[in-house]
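Lecture notes, part 5. Sequence design as translation. It can be helpful to think of inverse folding as translation between two languages: the language of shapes and the language of residues. The source text, in structure tokens, appears below.
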């Protein structure tokens, strides 16, 4: 995934459907706590020529010159990761889609709820699969899935990562640098020294954030009201 944004491509030879897909996509993404970038392509050939990897690709199947399925097959050769959502009304294509690890099939006239569910599920999957590399204080490096991190705590010259397995890992970083990277990935700075993973946060009581792990961290009074709002929005997405 892009450091700051979820990158999305729309590949469709019909302008009206590219515009419609983009409009529906923007309506969904503005409800989610993530930044995003969208690019449009009028053909599979144009899309492949860009030689770029995207987090999510909306691909029309019935396109002239090179079909969506053939475009996806070539795309997967250099970009095995990422999520493919095919736009089609033909069920006979579904079996072929397994060959390129298709995530969903959407009809162009499907109701908005179906589109919202597909995008929301795709975004959550991206968040679950994402890993980051951290430099350990005592040397070496470690890759951690973001979903395994409960919260981060700033120390004098390092940051302590607290995981769901109750491990505490000291890393070389600044909490401000981590906030800049992770605030678009489901994390929230509740205090100048604490960056929390919204997946584990359950409530804000008496100036403390309570996690599902039963741990707590302090939250500044001025951030409490906004945090409660963000927390409700985040967990509404996960339902």
């Amino acid at each position: 995934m892009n450091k700051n944004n979820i990158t999305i491509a729309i590949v469709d030879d019909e302008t009206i459907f590219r515009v419609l897909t983009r409009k529906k996509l923007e309506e969904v993404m503005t409800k989610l706590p993530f930044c995003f970038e969208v690019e449009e392509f009028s053909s599979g050939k144009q899309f492949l020529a860009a030689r770029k990897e995207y987090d999510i690709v909306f691909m029309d199947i019935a396109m002239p010159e090179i079909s969506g399925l053939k475009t996806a097959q070539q795309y997967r050769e250099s970009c095995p990761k990422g999520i493919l959502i095919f736009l089609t009304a033909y069920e006979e294509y579904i079996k072929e889609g397994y060959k390129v690890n298709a995530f969903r099939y959407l009809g162009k006239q499907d109701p908005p709820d179906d589109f919202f569910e597909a995008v929301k599920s795709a975004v959550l999957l991206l968040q679950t699969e994402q890993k980051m590399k951290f430099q350990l204080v005592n040397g070496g490096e470690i890759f951690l899935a973001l979903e395994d991190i409960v919260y981060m705590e700033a120390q004098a010259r390092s940051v302590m990562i607290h995981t769901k397995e109750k491990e505490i890992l000291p890393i070389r970083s600044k909490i401000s640098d981590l906030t800049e990277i992770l605030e678009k990935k489901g994390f929230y700075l509740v205090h100048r020294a604490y960056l929390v993973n919204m997946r584990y946060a359950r409530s804000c009581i008496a100036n403390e954030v309570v996690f599902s792990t039963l741990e707590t961290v302090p939250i500044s009074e001025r951030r409490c009201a906004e945090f409660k709002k963000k927390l409700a929005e985040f967990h509404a997405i996960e339902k």
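The translated text above is only one of many valid answers, since several sequences can fold into similar shapes. The chain has seven helices and 15 strands.
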